[in-house]
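Q: Hi! First time doing this. I have a protein sequence and I read that you can turn it into a structure. Is that right? Here it is:
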Amino acid sequence: MNLNKKLEMELKNNLKGIYGLEITTTQACNFQCSYCFERNHVPEENLLNPNIITKRVKQLLDSNWFKEQYSGIKIILWGGEPTMNMPLCKSLMEIFRQDERVCFFVYTNGSTIDNLMPTLLRLKKQPFIKDNQSKITIQVSYDGNPTHDMNRRDRKGNKTTYKAIHAITELHKYGIDYGLKATMSWKDFKYLPECWDDFKSLHNKFGSKIKYSLTVDYYNVEFSKYKDIVEKVLIKVAQKEVEFFKEYRYFLSNIFRGNKAICATGKNMACIDTDGIVYNCHGAIYSKCSDDLQYANIFDKDFINSIQRANSIYANNNIEPDECKECISSSCLRCNVKKYEESKKETHLDRWYDYPAQKDLCKYYKLVGKISAAIGSILKRE
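A: Yes, that's right. Below is the predicted 3D structure, encoded as structure tokens:
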């Protein structure tokens, strides 16, 4: 066995965690989504140079403390629409294409997939140390209709569903790992069953890769205002999910799937904005508390030590308040940044882990928990 093969096997056998490094390639976007928390932000002209990112990624991979805890890095390309800075996206993918310690994840509205595809195909062929994880994953933002074309228009006001569906079709055709992410504003919950049906039709066409991964608007929570309609449509969708589960043995949506995972932000990830400022995650960039949540700059010589210090501060990231432990919810969105904003507690970490801080959002997830329990009972009987 040659040395390279031996080292490769040792890497796989001793695989640790994967660190997420989010890169804000640009704050510009070619869409104007009505619910986007960045929509009122004026894009800055600054753009990061691939050379400094490459330098820091290599330093992270080679540092002793990093190697003790992690086996590799997932470079997450974020914006704006990250592919609006296509040169940076392509450069980083080519630079780390043959480094099996690095994989990529791209958030995108799917509008530029044809331009990016040749690079994706070259990247796809390369290995990543984690056997069950792809070298490249694309997350396409698609809300399902009728809400997608209501809320996700391009800068000229045109509907964009066809762009998202084209991206899904191309990714599926060429075997690029992908997923879909949907957002639902509270005022649009009345359309939830129709959006679910739209994803069901995509599932019929593309198969199990299609999941309805729904995120509610947790920046402007209006659950109590729309509680009656939310409860009504959730029950209607629950009935659809029961029938879907009987046929496929899994749920189409994440609504009743059950997920109370604690976010890796802080400990296992960092985000760099276009000025090179380092935050815990991309949500912190646009937070009203952003000044509290920035802790380094990619241009600083002390960059690696700053990452390490942050890693130690948030090392115990499995904190769960008693209120959460006793909660009936089966799923929960625990955005540390938003909890930090809403919390009335005093210390930094107490605010960071104050998951019950958004009481109205908690009410929504408790409702989902009750319906999920009912679904479970029905499926057990049948």
